[in-house]
Amino acid sequence: MLKRLLDILLVCMALLLLWPVILITALLVRVLLGGPVFFTQVRPGHNNRVFNMIKFRSMTNETNADGHLLPDELRLTPFGCFLRRSSLDELPELFNVLLGDMSLVGPRPLLVEYLPLYNTEQKRRHEVRPGITGWAQVNGRNNLSWEDKFTLDVWYVQNRSFVLDIKILFLTVFKVLQRADIEQEGHVTMRKFTGSTGTLGEKRDQ
Predict the structure, then answer these.
(1) What pLDDT does 111 receive?
(2) Short-list 174, 184, 183, 127, CA closest to 150
């Protein structure tokens, strides 16, 4: 109850302070990347309940001659890179928090297709609401292996507290200002999870 009240209070304060930034970002996305302004995707949340996560779009919709989307590295523009490195693309998720789909702090919501790939321990990351930021995000983010990321997510589930959430929020501010751990080395986006015992692919969601 306290965590939910804190989420609502902080998100309302953030929206009051950041609405000009959100508006300007939306206009720039529309002008520089075209429509739609928002990228929505179904993600699993608390107890695997799916919801539509909202982000600012950071890639173009360019396709090849066959009508298939071009590779991520060809669709990610300098402006899109700026959105990701500044974390401005995450701002619309504040509305997911208001709706109760997400929390400010928790394991990041990943793809629905990953659900059958988790082992028993990794599935515990869905025992809480997913977050805009989390313990894995302030301890390496996209520079972590999938296994390390899931280990940190489960550690958070087991040790979550009001004090830990406040610590993560403060650490997130420093990470955003440093623009650290946004991209994996040699990749413009996070490599796809194919299971803890499998190999990692090259492509991920936007």
Answers:
(1) 94
(2) 127
